[in-house]
Amino acid sequence: MNNSIKKSILFVCMGNICRSPTAEAVFRHKAQAQGLNLLIDSAGTLGAHAREKPDHRAQKAGLARGYSFAGIKARKVTEKDFEKFDLILAMDQDNLAHLKQMAPQQYHHKLQLFLDYAQNYKEQEVPDPYYGGAGGFHYVLDLVEDACDGLLAKLVCNKP
Fold first, then answer.
1. CB 69 within 8 A of CB 25
2. pLDDT digits over 14-58, tens only?
3. Are residues 120 and 87 in contact, defined by beta-carbon separation less than 8 angstroms?
4. Strand pairing of 87-90 and 39-44?
5. Buried b vs exposed e over 12-45: b needs ≥16 C-beta within 10 Å?
6. Which of 19, 92, 146, 148 does the annotation list as catalytic?
7. Per the residue annotation, which of 41, 128, 146, 148 is the catalytic one?
8. Domain 8-157: which topology?
9. Using CA atoms, how far apart are residues 70 and 119, in angstroms rounded to an integer?
10. Verdict on whether the full-model pTM lies above 0.90
């Protein structure tokens, strides 16, 4: 992340019903706890689940750790998102590649992998838990919490 102050962050996965809404809920909770006023949202590279609430298993796992999914509904990344958000964080390489195809060249500097901010895990991608059991959703939360902490540490360091 460059040294400019980030005020808006978009989390992106494929369908915007598991990983990216989890990241949105966790990051919103942690940012508010630190008193940061940020625009935080999530979206998917595909619009198949548009207007749906996050997966019930993601919500159950997140609620058990105190995160709220209130108001989060799936949507597809739009062209305006590339201009609107200061940082656009993909959950995996496939979605990062899709974002690079979708984004005008002048916004490519905003695109990164979310787990680049993880401090305690070596994984580079947040695995998609959709076709697995409850354990996958808890592991996603572990990765997301760690990367959120790392991202917040960077943001606080760059705060004026």
1. yes
2. 999 999 999 999 999 999 999 999 999 999 999 999 999 999 999
3. no
4. unpaired
5. bbbbbbbbbbbbbbbbbbbbeeeebebebbbbbb
6. 19
7. 128
8. Rossmann fold (3.40.50)
9. 28
10. yes
CA distance 98 to 140: 21
| Phi/psi-derived region of residue 148, left when phi > 0, alpha when psi is between -120 and 50, beta in every other case | alpha
Closest Cα to residue 125, out of 114, 141, 117, 134? 114
Cβ neighbours for 39, distance < 8 A, ≥ 6 positions apart: 7, 8, 9, 84, 85
Identify how many contiguous H helices and E strands the chain contains and give both numbers: 5, 4
Evaluated on CA atoms 92, 64, 150, 28, the torsion sign reads positive
Residue 121 has pLDDT above 70, yes or no: yes
- At 99-120, the pLDDT tens digits run 999 999 999 999 999 999 999 9
Distance (Å, whole) CA 24 – CA 11: 7
94 catalytically annotated: no
Q: Which helix (H) or strand (E) holds 112?
A: strand 111-113
Assess whether 128 carries a catalytic annotation: yes
Q: Which amino acid is at 47?
A: G
Instruction: Give domain limits for the chain.
Output: 8-157
| Tokens matching residue 72 | 């989060």
